[in-house]
Write a structure and sequence with these properties.
Length: 207
C-alpha cells in the first residue's frame, strides 16, 4: 500500500511540475515577471502549509535542522526557481524543461560520488530511458537566448544539490514541517526582492 501511495504521489508531483511553465507563461503574458510570480507561488504555498501543519499539530524543526531547511529554501530553492522561471522568459518552454530534467542524472552521479551509492545496470537504464522519454515527449524544437539556456542549465545542478541536502535533513525533521520552512524561507527572500524591485501583478483574470 505504501509503495502504491508513493507512486501516486510521484505522478501527482510530476503533473504539477509539468504544469509550472504553462502557468508561469500565462502570468508573464498578463504583465507579471519571474520574481513576482515566484513571490506569489511561495507566499501562497507558505500560507497553505502553515495552516496544514498547525491543524495537524506538527512541531516545527529546531536547531541545525531549522537552519539547514532555511538555507535550502532561501538559497537552494530560490536559486533553482529563479534560474528556471527566468529561463522561461528567454528560451522555449520545451528546451528549458529538457535541460531541467537532467537533474535525475546529476543526482544519481553525485549520489554515487558523495554517498557511494551503487550505479546498478537497471538504474542506469532507467535514467537513459527517462531522458529519452523526456526528449521524445517534449521534442527538440525551440531555442532561445544564450543567457536563458545558461540559466536553464544551471537550474538542474542547484536542484540536484537541493535534493541531496533534503534527502538527509528531511528524514530527521519530517516532511510537512520541512516543506513549510522551505516555502516560508523562499517566500521571504522573494519578498525582499519585491520590496526592492516592485510587484508586477498579472493584469488579467487568466493571468
Amino acid at each position: 500500500m505504501q509503495k502504491f501511495k508513493g507512486m501516486l504521489l510521484i505522478i501527482i508531483s510530476a503533473i504539477a511540475f509539468g504544469a509550472i511553465p504553462i502557468f508561469a507563461r500565462a502570468a508573464y503574458r498578463a504583465g507579471s515577471d519571474p520574481i513576482s510570480v515566484l513571490f506569489f507561488r511561495f507566499s501562497i504555498a507558505s500560507i497553505i502549509m502553515i495552516l496544514w501543519v498547525i491543524a495537524r499539530k506538527i512541531p516545527f524543526p529546531r536547531g541545525k535542522f531549522l537552519l539547514g531547511l532555511m538555507l535550502m529554501g532561501g538559497m537552494g530553492y530560490v536559486g533553482q526557481s529563479f534560474c528556471y522561471f527566468t529561463a522561461l522568459t528567454m528560451a522555449s518552454a520545451g528546451l528549458v524543461a529538457i535541460l531541467l530534467y537532467l537533474y535525475p542524472v546529476i543526482v544519481a552521479i553525485l549520489s554515487a560520488l558523495l554517498f557511494k551509492e551503487r550505479m546498478t545496470g537497471p538504474k542506469i537504464l532507467a535514467l537513459i530511458l527517462a531522458l529519452v522519454g523526456t526528449v521524445l515527449t517534449i521534442g527538440l524544437s525551440g531555442g532561445g537566448q544564450l543567457l536563458g539556456i545558461v540559466l536553464a542549465m544551471t537550474a538542474p545542478f542547484i536542484y540536484s544539490a537541493y535534493i541531496l541536502a533534503g534527502s538527509k535533513i528531511i528524514k530527521e525533521a519530517g516532511v510537512l514541517s520541512s516543506s513549510t520552512v522551505v516555502m516560508i524561507s523562499a517566500g521571504l527572500v522573494f519578498g525582499i526582492f519585491i520590496t526592492v524591485k516592485g510587484l508586477n501583478v498579472p493584469q488579467t483574470l487568466a493571468g
